[in-house]
Amino acid sequence: xxxxxxxxxxxxxxxxxxxxxxxxxxxxxxxxxHGYLVTASIGSGQIKSIDTSQAExxxxxxxxxxxxNPPKIxxxxxxxxxxxxxxxxxxxxxxxxxxGGQIIGxxxxxxxxxxxxxxxxxxxxxxxxxxxxxxQKATFKEAPPFMGEELKFEKGNVATVNNxxxxxxxxxxxxxxxxxxxxxxxxxxxxxxxxxLTIYEPTQWVMGSQRTYAELFGLPAERVRIITPxxxxxxxxxxMPWPHGILCAAVARHLQRPVKxxxxxxxxxxxxxxxxxxxxxxxxxxxxxxxxxxxxxDVKSSTSPVDTFTEPCTRVTPVMYSAPNLRYAQELxxxxxxxxxxxxAPGENPGMWALESAMDELAWSLKLDPVELRLRNQTQEHQxxxxxxxxxxxxxxxxxxxxxxxxxxxxxxxxxxxxxxxLVGWGMAGATFPALQGVATVKVRLLPDSTxxxxxxxxxxxxxxxxxxxxxxxxxxxVSVEKVRVEMGDSQLPDGGMxxxxxMTASLAPAVIKACQDVLKSADCNDATDAWAALxxxxxxxxxxxxxxxxxxxxxxxxxxxxxxxxCEVTVDEEIGRLQITRWLSVMDIGRxxxxxTAASQVRGxxxxxxxxxxxxxxxLDPNIGYPVVYDLATYHFPSHADIPRIDVVFVGEPDLNxxxxxxxxxxxxxxxGVSAVIANAVYHATGKRIRSLPLTPEKLMADFRALTADExxxxxxxxxxxxxxxxxxxVAGHSQNV
Amino acid sequence: MNNFSYSRATSVQNAVQRASTDKNAMFIxxxxxxxxxxxxxxxxxxxxIDVSRLEMKQLEPLASGGLRIGSLVTNxxxxxxxxxxxxxxxxxRAILSGASQQIRNVATVGGNILQRTxxxxxxxxxxxxxxxxxxxxCPALTGINRTHALLGASDQCVAVHPSDMCVALxxxxxxxxxxxxxxxxxxxxxxxHRLPGNxxxxxxxxxxxxxxxxxxxxxLPFAKSGVYLKLRDRASYAFALISVAAAVDLAEEQIxxxxxxxxxxxxxxxxxxxxxxxxxxxxxxxxxxEEAAKIALQSAKPLAHNRxxxxxxxxxxxxxxxxxxxxxxx
Amino acid sequence: xxxxxxxxxxxxxVTLNVNGKKRSLAIEPRVTLxxxxxxxxxxxxxxxxxxxxxCGACTVLVDGQRVYSCLALAVMQEGKEIVTIEGLAKDDxxxxxxxxxxxxxxxxxxxxxxxxxxxxxxxxxxxxxGSSSAITPNLEHPPQLAExxxxxxxxxxxxxxxxxxxxxxxxxxxxxxxxxxPPSAAADVMVKEMPA
Lengths: 739, 330, 196
Fold this sequence. Notes:
The structure holds three protein chains of three kinds.
Chain A: H1 13-17, E1 33-39, E2 45-51, H2 53-57, E3 61-66, E4 96-97, E5 103-109, H3 112-120, E6 123-128, E7 140-142, E8 153-155, E9 166-174, E10 186-191, E11 197-200, H4 206-216, E12 224-227, H5 243-255, E13 259-262, H6 265-271, E14 278-286, E15 292-303, H7 317-320, E16 325-334, H8 348-366, H9 370-377, E17 381-382, E18 387-388, H10 394-405, E19 418-419, E20 422-434, E21 440-447, E22 451-456, H11 465-477, E23 484-488, H12 504-523, H13 528-538, E24 543-549, E25 561-573, E26 578-589, H14 596-615, E27 647-651, H15 675-687, H16 698-701, H17 716-725, E28 733-735
Parallel strand pairs in A: 1-13, 11-12, 15-16, 22-23, 26-27
Antiparallel strand pairs in A: 1-5, 2-4, 2-6, 3-5, 6-28, 7-16, 8-16, 9-14, 10-11, 10-13, 14-15, 17-18, 19-20, 20-25, 21-22, 21-24, 25-26
Chain B: E1 5-8, H1 12-21, E2 25-28, H2 34-39, E3 47-50, E4 59-61, E5 67-70, H3 75-80, H4 82-87, H5 89-97, H6 101-106, H7 109-114, H8 165-171, E6 175-180, E7 183-188, H9 189-192, E8 211-217, E9 227-231, E10 242-251, E11 254-263, E12 270-271, H10 273-279, H11 286-296, H12 307-325
Parallel strand pairs in B: 1-3, 2-3
Antiparallel strand pairs in B: 4-5, 5-8, 6-7, 6-8, 9-10, 10-11, 11-12
Chain C: E1 12-18, E2 21-27, H1 33-40, E3 59-62, E4 65-68, E5 81-83, H2 96-103, H3 113-128, H4 150-156, H5 167-177, E6 188-189
Parallel strand pairs in C: 1-5
Antiparallel strand pairs in C: 1-2, 3-4, 3-5
């Protein structure tokens, strides 16, 4: 356990590059039926009538389910411990339409094509209400605690700070963003009689799903088996059952046939989570030397009518910078939108966009280097929890980053750098994400053929968990990684916790270490080679041990948090509003790095998703109808190869042994935090234009873009008449949306 | 997708004849737009007539010096053709700027010019749409219309034509050759696509049973300095917000002739003859090009969210004309 | 060419050449090549990411060219040579593109990976044949494999999206395949060692 394991190729690489890795919808089940969802085409209202007769008569159709004949589902406790579903309202529970695209039916047929076509034949009449989809028109109220954590706090008194050298206050906005994993949400539900269920579904939380489906169908947990060896990304949106999964499993029970439901991209837009739009106002007050005197952070986000999810942006406020006066609060509005959820660094991502933009504004106001401003204000303790941070190396992130990027050569003026006729700008910002650890259990088996078998229900959504587990086992046992076979993602294996909150490594790695140590101890050997010899001599089938890791109990001594700094260069062709990111460096302090390859990929993935947020990602609903107009991968842009520069990743710091015996804090989410701020800060340096609303689309980047002039706009009267004559808002019936 | 029957045409005549006996039949070649539309129930044909195996895959020089492009020539084959790279670089670049290699490998020239708008309201049957369902209304007018039309739109429809290739073809004065029950005819490119007016359901002047057999490109020596500039929300694999195909013919700093077409602004690829006429005889400089850009957009009627496109189009026009005047290097 | 004709709602007999094997099946004309591979032939390596030609996960090779199998009707592919991700490795030996993806960590969740790999196989071939891209400075002088720039690689692969964003690793894989020396996939780790 003394060395860094280095850079290891992905254990699951071969299965994935050959097409042999089997994802949920790909399991070959005899007699499989195909379900296709029927979804609402209005943004708010009631179903007046739903005519399924044509669909039922269509070729191959086995059954059609609507709120008039919903399959049996039990209401779960939904308390996160014994069960948790993303959306508290159960599918098809009544005739109410809460948001455009909501699931209002399921057609089951012999083939995918038949089911999809029949779903299109379902005719719906609505009683339409005017949907509320515009953030600016919503009513905001104090947000409830987020997973038990208060989202409001004050120390000192921000209002009384009046001797500051510089004060700034600004409002920063982000748009609705979609998790948009490459693998669409999908499920195959197969019942063995009325009281045993097998589910193939991409879930980031195998055991949570097992418990939840068990409650939904009134079964003991062990009667439900969840199988998820591979999942094609989730980014927070695949941790719990969504309505489509619940409905599919219920229908499969009703029909006593295996049923598969795969969401289309359009259906995913509203039925599989998103990151809420946010509006954040940050106030900063500082002395002339840059020392912060006050920080105020006020946040608005929205949720759906059928569940509560607050984007917890203020979690960053007490951890980043020290100020004697510090206050934050969050408000939440209910709108006719799908239920928002966790999306890579929920809270920290938009929170750091606002805070790190504001810090840049403050640095310019103070005429102080933004790296220096951060160095002077970093806090050694969590200002809400009143605990010191364990193994914090934010200073190294800033200093190593500045050194490697050549930050000292940055000009101190905006619009001062031109290259090939384009403005060049440099930006920097901090990054942060809390270190979480859950309870995880791992079984290790030494086999007589000189291999090691590690088993856990925890899983790998592309993070590198297979490889990490194999690496830790190999290292602890003193064998090569090739000797270790890892089996994950099946609820019949020991509970491995959730692949979420960047905690899979911190939860699993200590359990793997302990189980490996235990298996050696039980064999009374120092390494696996000796143990294998002893095993063969004993004639036993295997030496095995099971171990569980858990967060330390007792009084809390530390706050655990990861840190980082990003530096980037952009070029802006401001005549035509075209921006290119030309250089990127991320320096991260995540405790011990378990695998230099997969950890780098995690940071790059986070950065690139952040680049998407900064430059292009935006889901919009029609304001009058309430149905999305951005609903697939042609309308919801996220970065392509051509948008992305080489991203250099450096890790600094030390193993965080206060946190766990692996010293690792996790790396899945920190990469995305601060990214959009770095880019906006670089744009400011390049152009002198401070953009506070994401994404930075061409119209915001275009220089001297003029305000509306008379010859460019329609006559106001003409526009009014247009709206009056437009029949499109009155539509109440017609095809259901179902593609 | 609804279910449909499928047949392979054995000849152009056979294809046309099959189409005339079934009003709800559709031709399919590359299918990259049609299959997509079928999947979202924008079209529900009774049968698909597969014309992809017909002999319309030839690129042939015309006696006039131009080029005859069989309608089944793929986008990739056309962009890769040496004579296109050499003589019509704006066409090659427009094609290469569109979609992705996978789509260009399959998409045909005939299919490309028939592709329909990606207006998100048109493309989802949850919305009313005059183009899909005449007289049902146009929610884009009062909804989210950032990508919608500036020029030549109507109160019935503000959708834009999505093709990149067509912008270059409009600039190059291409001619569409079609065969129908009454025989062959030729349609000048400018007359091929329609403005929405009161019949937004009709994109083109092609008759239902007519089949596009070829595109004719007249010779245009100064097209060698032509450029195609595409501006979009993502660096690649995205439709244009604004695109410009331009070529300037210079005689000692004086503009002898010019071609200018704009994409992303109208229901059809928008050739700006007013701007072209203004430019002829003028000195090739930034001020002239800026003035021409203003003229090209003078009848623009922006909506709530696409006002920036007026300015963006002007700047893209100026930039493109400058680039072409400088020799066409991008 | 034999004329295939179907009646409405009927399945038609179709014979496809997939990975060198003739596969005969009865499917409706509306079934895409992607759904045929995944739902009828058990070849689930080609992925359905968007089903609308907007992501590239379904990329396969048809007559050597990369295409989106989600936008192709299976019935139209008769007589063509179809190669999917399952057809690239020879016995147990990975195709060089597959191996380069693993070496450079050009994958994370793996869902876009088969499409990225098929696209890369085709890309190398296209460059050999002298194809240009939208950003090739001189269309008449397309780049050779050895001089393929990072920008060219990225433009040519942009029809394959990756939400995990393994883009750096994929570009590095291509660079390795054309004989260039890509930067290491691994981060620079300056973290203190674990105490003994």
